[in-house]
Amino acid sequence: MPKKLTVTSIMKAKGSTPLMMITAYDALFARLFNPIADMILVGDSLNMSFAGKPDTLSASLDQMIYHTQAVCSGAPDTFIICDMPFGTYKTSEEALANAIRVYQDTKADAIKIEGGKRKADIIERLTSEGIAVCGHIGLLPQSVRGEGGYKVKGKDETNALALIDDAKAVEAAGAFCLVIEGVKADVAERVALAVAIPVIGIGAGSAVDGQVLVFSDMLGLYEPFVPKFVKQYLDGAEAVKAAVETFKSDVQSRAFPAQEHTY
Ligand code: KIV
Predict the structure, then answer these.
(1) Domain span at residue 127?
(2) Mean of the pLDDT values across residues 216-237?
(3) Are residues 59 and 74 located together in one domain of the fold?
(4) How many A from CA of 45 to the centre of ligand 1?
(5) Can you tell me the distance from the alpha carbon of 259 to that of 13, in angstroms, rounded to the nearest whole number?
(6) CA atoms of 115 and 89, how far apart (whole Å)
(7) Among 127, 47, 34, 132, which Cα is nearest to 81's?
(8) CA 67 to CA 46: how far, in whole Å?
(9) Residue 2 banded pLDDT, cuts 50, 70, 90
């Protein structure tokens, strides 16, 4: 059976083994993740960890397309989702034109859009044109300035019910799955139970249908800030710095290049 998941197999995965999604921004890492990941997200988080910006808001569609092309080259056997950057899906027609660009210029399997109920019309327009859409509800990084920071959601019953409504609206609009970010675990569980599409959590506890992490966070490569929900599976920053230190001292001592590295 081919490894690559499809919209259908992802939807069928609801209620079975949780799905693993990881971000990637280039072919180098995508190639490493290709045999392992269920889904790769080319997240606009690249604007922070790759481009060094303070938030995701200045990522452009051209940048997302460039990085998605690279990830698709590196991970041909993995279902790839391209994040639609801030300001590229304000209306249905704008979203459709930009999503069509993503499909025509890359091999992405799907696009992701932040926003629940208020984006349902847009999601419906895209899915009715044959575009696979992953929703994104809860903490919305593209709303960071509007909300005055990254705010955990689901802290009261009114907000919990609003999140359930968001998920149902995204599902009814035809999304094949949904990312839920920065939500109290018990509320995320209620959201996952309320819809038939897989709900992939980030900072949303374990009672959902899968987990996504930003690769540079989980590999310990991004030093400026480590959110509470991140598990670092590697001390990547220390490993890289130690290797580069050793290279420098080898250069200075002329231990590198040795005979085996010399023509
Ligand atoms: O941009 C991104 O990496 C994301 C994840 C945080 C889900 O949207």
Answers:
(1) 7-232
(2) 96
(3) yes
(4) 6
(5) 53
(6) 11
(7) 132
(8) 9
(9) low
